[in-house]
Structures are given as C-alpha cells and as structure tokens.
Amino acid sequence: GATIGILGGGQLGRMLSVAASRLGLKTHIYEPGANPPAADVAHRVMTAGYDDTTALAAFAASVDVITYEFENIPTAALDQLEALRPIRPNRNALAISQDRISEKAFLNEIGLTTAPWAIVTTAADLDAALTRIGAPAILKTTRLGYDGKGQARIMAPADAPAALAEMQGAPAVLEGFVDFSREISVIAARGLTGEVAAYDPGENVHRAGILHTTTVPARISSAQRSDAVLIAARILNALDYVGVMGVELFVTPAGLLVNEIAPRVHNSGHWTQQGCAVDQFEQHIRAVAGWPLGDGSRYADVEMLNLIGADVAQVPTLAREGNTAIHLYGKTEAKAGRKMGHINRILPRT
Ligand code: ATP
Ligand code: MG
Ligand code: MG
C-alpha cells in the first residue's frame, strides 16, 4: 500500500491518519512540535522544523504523496518537497488561501461574491477604505489568522487607529461587515480524475471567534443549498484541486457570499464522521491517493459540538448519551481556546 505524507500533526492529521489506516494505507507525519495528537495513530512521525532540509528530503523519500492539515507551511519547504513528490492539494490552491487578498481576488475573478474589501497597510489606506466601504467593517491580517485571531472590528471611523494598531504593522484587508442571517459551509472534494462530490451544507455557530457547533441540515432553502454546492464546485474546478476543501459562506437576502476557503479537511466537516458512509477524512485520503470518491450522501441529522478547553470535563456526562459519538484528540493540557475534541450527536429526524 501507499504511504501518505502529512504536513502537520494536529487533530486533523490524527483523524486523517485513522482514515488512511482503515484503508490499509500508512501515514508519515511531519511536525516540528513534540508529542503531536497524530503521533498516537500515525505509522511514523518525523519531528523536525520546516527549515531542516535534510529532514524534509528524508520525509519526502519515505512517502508516495504529500498532503497537509494546515495552510501556513513555509514556501521554501514546499519548493523542496514539490520537487520530490506530488503535493495534493496543489501549491496554487495553498498559495491562494494563505493570503486573504489573493483569496478574495481569486474568488471575485471566478465570478463569486465576497464582502466588499480593500487592501490596507497605512492609516491613509484605512481612511480611504472606510470612506468607500463604510462602517461597520472588520480589519483582518492578510496572513496567519485563524479562530478570529488577527481581526479588529471597526464600528465607527473613530475606531480606525486602534484597529490598525492591532495589526502590528502586518498587511491587512478591510472587509465590509456582512449582515448575514446564517453562516454555512460546504465541504467538498475533487478527485484525481476531476470528479466532484460535495457534502450537504452545515450551519455554523461561532463563539468568541471559534466554531462552536455545526448542524446538518442547515436551515436554508433548496435553492440556497444548490447554490452553495455549485459555488464549491466552481472553486474546486478553477483550482484543478485534488482533495477536500472547506468553503465558508454567509447567507444574506442578496444571496450567498464567500467568506473564506480552507484547502484541507475542515472543523465544520467533522459531522460527516457520523452522517455519511465516507467521511471527510476518508474522502481526502481517497482523493490524494487517487481512489474514487464517496458520493457525499447524508444519512443522519447531526449536531457537531466542539469541546474547547475546559469543555472536555463534560465528557463523562456526554458519554451517557447513547446517540452521541465522542472524538477526543489525546491532548493533555486543556488550555483556554484549545480544541480538545468534539462530539457528533445524532438528532431525531423531524
Ligand atoms: P477560521 O478559524 O474559520 O479560519 P478566521 O480567523 O480565518 O477563522 P474568519 O472566518 O474570517 O476568521 O472570521 C471569523 C468569524 O467572524 C466568521 O465566521 C464570522 O462569524 C465573522 N466574520 C468574519 N468576517 C466577517 C464579515 N465581513 N462580516 C461579518 N462577520 C464576519
Ligand atoms: Mg480562516
Ligand atoms: Mg473562518
């Protein structure tokens, strides 16, 4: 069987390793940090930094294909790896989603709607952007943001200097504040031969910038459901993508707006573990290994609830629910804001 190389050993790498193992494939994890969650289940773990060219070469030599569980992999490491083994999803998809400006420019280019946005590096840029876009608005660093980090809300023009200071000199993008009725996401996959399979859109609720729950089915119309899936398919095809992607959307009276894309398995797709025959992790491994894809059909109504930090103390109680699957990531320290696990609760069908 083939060996899949995974850059990153967090919970996503762990669940990808479990899926690969079920398919009789091996995984080899590359991760700078000690004792990553994926180490419990992967076939091999290489502990080395992304500047260690010897380790990167040895890692590439030990695998058949390379994938990743996070976006922020240094370019030089990718250049080296790409010369040795295929990287799936491809470099272009990764580069576009690493930077909010290239991401939004790409989405607009292929005819998709985003919040109005403007590039901001100076106070003068921000003034001009606020004049054009108006308040309320959100200033976001272009790179490295996740779980709502690196963002500042501007309720009125007077908030602008403080918001710019929060960017700490990093390039930023100003986005008009979207008055959405709901947030949804589509998890979709594209195979090596170009076939696309999408899961049913999930409805997402965030708390303090971190995903709290994803519920399927989302409370949207069937027209919105097909729009969402078509948007995801358009993105995957435009990128000649191979693997699973998460597409976050805002539902508004004027239609669906794309918030951001993630070129990997996605927290809002964890419900597929109990809702579908082939979950997002198996789907991603199938895609990068060149297998046929599962069809994405959903067989249950599911609520996914993240266990963040001290929430993990609820596990003994949750374990008494007979219709709830528990997924823990093997992390020991329950730090505030840290994703410790999640549950998938099968909902009674209405
Ligand atoms: P993730 O962990 O999903 O990668 P992130 O840090 O990249 O998060 P975003 O997804 O850009 O951040 O924003 C986090 C949340 O903030 C969104 O899910 C949404 O609830 C809210 N938000 C972001 N941008 C806007 C906007 N332009 N208008 C309204 N709400 C927004
Ligand atoms: Mg993001
Ligand atoms: Mg997001």
Automatic annotation (TrEMBL):
State which Enzyme Commission number(s) the record gives: 6.3.4.18
List, alphabetically, the InterPro entries matched. ATP-grasp, ATP-grasp_carboxylate-amine, ATP_grasp_subdomain_1, PreATP-grasp_dom_sf, PurK, PurK_C, PurT/PurK_preATP-grasp, Rudment_hybrid_motif
Which positions bind ATP?
A: 100, 140, 145-151, 175-178, 183, 206, 259-260
**Annotated ranges, domain ATP-grasp:** 104-289
Pathway of action: Purine metabolism; IMP biosynthesis via de novo pathway; 5-amino-1-(5-phospho-D-ribosyl)imidazole-4-carboxylate from 5-amino-1-(5-phospho-D-ribosyl)imidazole (N5-CAIR route): step 1/2
- Kind of enzyme, top EC level? ligase
State the coiled-coil residue ranges.
none
A GO CC term attached to the entry: cytosol
Q: Keywords of this protein's UniProt record, alphabetized? A: ATP-binding, Ligase, Nucleotide-binding, Purine biosynthesis
Tell me a GO biological process for this protein: 'de novo' IMP biosynthetic process
| GO MF annotation terms | 5-(carboxyamino)imidazole ribonucleotide synthase activity; ATP binding; metal ion binding; phosphoribosylaminoimidazole carboxylase activity
Catalysed reaction(s) here are: 5-amino-1-(5-phospho-beta-D-ribosyl)imidazole + hydrogencarbonate + ATP = 5-carboxyamino-1-(5-phospho-D-ribosyl)imidazole + ADP + phosphate + 2 H(+)
The task this protein performs is described as: Catalyzes the ATP-dependent conversion of 5-aminoimidazole ribonucleotide (AIR) and HCO(3)(-) to N5-carboxyaminoimidazole ribonucleotide (N5-CAIR).
Q: Assembly and partners? A: Homodimer.
Which family does the record assign? Belongs to the PurK/PurT family.
**NCBIfam families per record:** PRK06019.1-1, PRK06019.1-2, PRK06019.1-5, purK
Q: What is the protein name for this chain?
A: N5-carboxyaminoimidazole ribonucleotide synthase
